[in-house]
Design goal:
about 120 residues, mainly beta, about 0% helix, about 35% strand, globular
């Protein structure tokens, strides 16, 4: 993984909250039908799928509380959060350049753009 220029390893990811960036990597995230996913929607209507969550900023955050994460986020104007159960398998595959964004709690999301996803889980 190659981090973008200006990325400060001394700060947590919340320092860049809601500021999309690109990193170099090759990977596939697979999310199974019937399972919940947690997604952000940016003002430009890009869906961002949570790839990791952390309790570094909010030590009380657990996986069981993710469906209600929206009430803990400080979403900028035009951003939305929702938890949704998938009606089919979702694949997000990156072959070199991944679009990512963090929320203000340092949870990380990958963007569903540039053809990396097989469908938009926002609905």
């Amino acid at each position: 993984m190659q981090m973008p220029s200006g990325f400060d390893t001394e700060q947590d990811q919340s320092a860049q909250a809601y500021q999309p960036m690109q990193i170099r990597r090759v990977n596939t995230y697979e999310f199974r039908s019937g399972r919940p996913v947690f997604v952000l929607r940016s003002p430009d209507e890009i869906t961002w799928v949570m790839q990791t969550f952390t309790d570094h900023i909010d030590p009380t955050l657990t996986e069981l509380e993710l469906p209600d994460l929206g009430s803990r986020l400080s979403l900028p104007a035009g951003w939305q959060f929702k938890a949704t159960a998938l009606d089919r398998d979702l694949s997000v595959t990156t072959n070199g350049l991944a679009n990512i964004v963090s929320d203000n709690l340092s949870n990380m999301y990958q963007g569903c753009l540039d053809g990396v996803n097989n469908f938009d889980p926002w609905g």
